[in-house]
């Protein structure tokens, strides 16, 4: 195998998960890969609640391309372009861009953007990898100080919903709110540590739901939305949410309330003088409510109030109501529909030391957390000075890793403590979804994190190669050229390799941004040969020392 380095390419859909320099090992033998339940691209309808008349698309970095119609050819987008309603028919933009609307909304992301003109204005959609989508939802839904355990639990729920959702995803509360843009370190960690994990019942991947606070008791999905009762989405007492205050109070004028219902299409005739709960659900929520002489479902009433008067008025269906003068007075607790995970309760449980698995087992009884139908989620095994993370930890791989790490440390010594973490993905699709790399790579190393495809564990010398990358990068000082760092790993991993230096131009550039697999292979052979010649002339100890002191002039 050969290794090479590539920085995040402008316009790519890569999510930054750590060190900006990315080491890759190429898969020389082509194989088959495809989509599966662990990772896939998701399309999201953006600015869903707005009536958009115009959008301006501004390229942010790298090679952004676009086409103005389905039959048009793609061309470079070097400056901002504005698309107006009525003129846009299948505008497609590929790359890292900022999209701004005439409703003063904006979003930034690398992905595939599409703008269509429909009857009520422009529709903007973006397609991006599922792991990037999960990070965007966490950015939009999670608290800034969310504990790691509850943040990881939320990541699993968000992913479970998205991977099983049959319709169109949106950036609004119709599905899951998301915020595109920079991702915090805590969110990046939560997404990476739960990569591909979803809820499963038996051999079936099932959706997850979350609410801001259950108010002390969760609601069954079949009661909230109808349909067949689901064992993992049943109503149950939620003591942790009870310990997180969620009381609320609202007063709505009776005439204001009536007009809001009329605008929503409900036949509320005449002045409203009475509001009464007709029936409650098993969790105590309002199942049916009567407004004047008109009766309707409790959730329908709350949705109407939210759409017309704002979602901060009636915060949940767990309330009492009485008429005082010309106003309806509501006293309630909890925020949201109450189905599934309660974010407030999860935070309390995390603060009490419960991990993400325990939180998910409580809120989704009968469901298991897995990456595929055959595993039990991510498992950790410690080696000697390093850690293996896999859905199927292999004792033989731990032995291979111990030997590779011992050999690597004998070749490149560093003064600081370094502890590699090797994550082996069960599918190529998930590897690609997390790293953003093409399927012909076997491994990607960032800082002390090594990401490997399933086939990577069978590649001779791959663990040694990647562990050398960890040590070389840990020891290398600023300014040490890429060809030397990459070539040194090649030379140390395969000391008997070729020393024939060819005529390849711009080895540094082709290592950093290879145009093809063949080009990368040639650049790696060249870099390895260059460093092997240096090792032959000066000795391995001296050449390794140049990682710290820098490559002397004239040796390049």
UniProtKB/TrEMBL annotation:
InterPro entries: SpoIID/LytB (IPR013486), SpoIID/LytB_N (IPR013693). One of its GO terms (biological process) is sporulation resulting in formation of a cellular spore. Residues 120-199 form the Sporulation stage II protein D amidase enhancer LytB N-terminal domain. It comes from the Bacteria. NCBIfam families: SpoIID_LytB. This is SpoIID/LytB domain protein. It comes from Granulicella pectinivorans.
């Amino acid at each position: 195998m050969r290794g090479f380095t590539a920085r995040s390419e402008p316009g790519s859909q890569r999510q930054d998960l750590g060190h900006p320099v990315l080491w890759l090992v190429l898969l020389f033998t082509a194989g088959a890969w495809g989509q599966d339940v662990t990772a896939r691209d998701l399309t999201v309808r953006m600015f869903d609640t707005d009536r958009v008349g115009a959008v301006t698309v501004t390229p942010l970095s790298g090679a952004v391309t676009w086409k103005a119609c389905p039959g048009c050819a793609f061309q470079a987008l070097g400056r901002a372009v504005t698309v107006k309603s009525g003129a846009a028919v299948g505008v497609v933009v590929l790359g890292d861009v900022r999209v701004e609307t005439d409703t003063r909304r904006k979003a930034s992301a690398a992905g595939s953007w599409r703008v269509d003109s429909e009857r009520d204005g422009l529709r903007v959609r973006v397609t991006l990898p599922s792991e990037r989508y999960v990070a965007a939802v966490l950015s939009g839904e999670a608290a800034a100080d969310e504990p790691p355990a509850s943040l990881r639990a939320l990541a699993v729920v968000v992913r479970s919903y998205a991977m099983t959702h049959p319709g169109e995803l949106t950036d609004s509360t119709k599905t899951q709110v998301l915020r595109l843009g920079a991702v915090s370190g805590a969110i990046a960690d939560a997404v990476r540590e739960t990569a591909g994990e979803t809820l499963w019942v038996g051999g079936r991947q099932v959706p997850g739901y979350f609410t801001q606070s259950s108010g002390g008791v969760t609601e069954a999905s079949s009661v909230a939305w109808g349909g067949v009762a689901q064992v993992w989405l049943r109503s149950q007492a939620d003591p942790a949410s009870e310990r997180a205050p969620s009381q609320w109070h609202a007063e709505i004028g009776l005439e204001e309330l009536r007009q809001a219902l009329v605008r929503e299409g409900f036949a509320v005739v005449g002045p409203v003088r009475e509001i009464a709960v007709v029936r409650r659900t098993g969790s105590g929520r309002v199942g049916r409510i009567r407004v004047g002489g008109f009766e309707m479902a409790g959730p329908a009433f709350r949705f109407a109030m939210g759409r017309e008067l704002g979602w901060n008025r009636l915060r949940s269906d767990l309330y009492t109501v009485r008429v005082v003068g010309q106003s309806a007075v509501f006293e309630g607790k909890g925020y949201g529909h109450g189905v599934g995970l309660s974010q407030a309760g999860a935070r309390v449980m995390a603060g009490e030391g419960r991990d993400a698995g325990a939180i998910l087992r409580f809120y989704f009884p009968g469901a298991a957390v897995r990456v595929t139908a055959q595993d039990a989620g991510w498992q950790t095994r410690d080696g000697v000075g390093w850690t293996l993370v896999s859905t199927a930890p292999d004792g033989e791989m731990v032995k291979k890793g111990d030997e590779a790490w011992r050999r690597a440390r004998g070749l490149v010594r560093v003064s600081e403590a370094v502890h590699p973490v090797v994550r082996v993905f069960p599918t190529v699709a998930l590897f690609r979804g997390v790293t953003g790399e093409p399927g012909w790579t076997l491994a990607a190393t960032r800082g002390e994190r090594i990401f490997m495809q399933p086939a990577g564990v069978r590649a001779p010398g791959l663990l040694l190669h990647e562990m050398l990358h960890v040590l070389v990068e840990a020891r290398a000082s600023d300014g040490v050229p890429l060809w030397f760092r990459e070539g040194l790993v090649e030379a140390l991993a395969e000391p008997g390799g070729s020393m024939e230096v060819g005529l390849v131009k711009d080895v540094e550039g082709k290592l950093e941004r290879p145009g093809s697999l063949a080009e990368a292979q040639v650049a790696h052979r060249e870099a390895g040969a260059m460093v092997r010649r240096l090792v032959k002339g000066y000795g391995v100890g001296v050449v390794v020392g140049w990682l710290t002191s820098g490559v002397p002039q004239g040796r390049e």
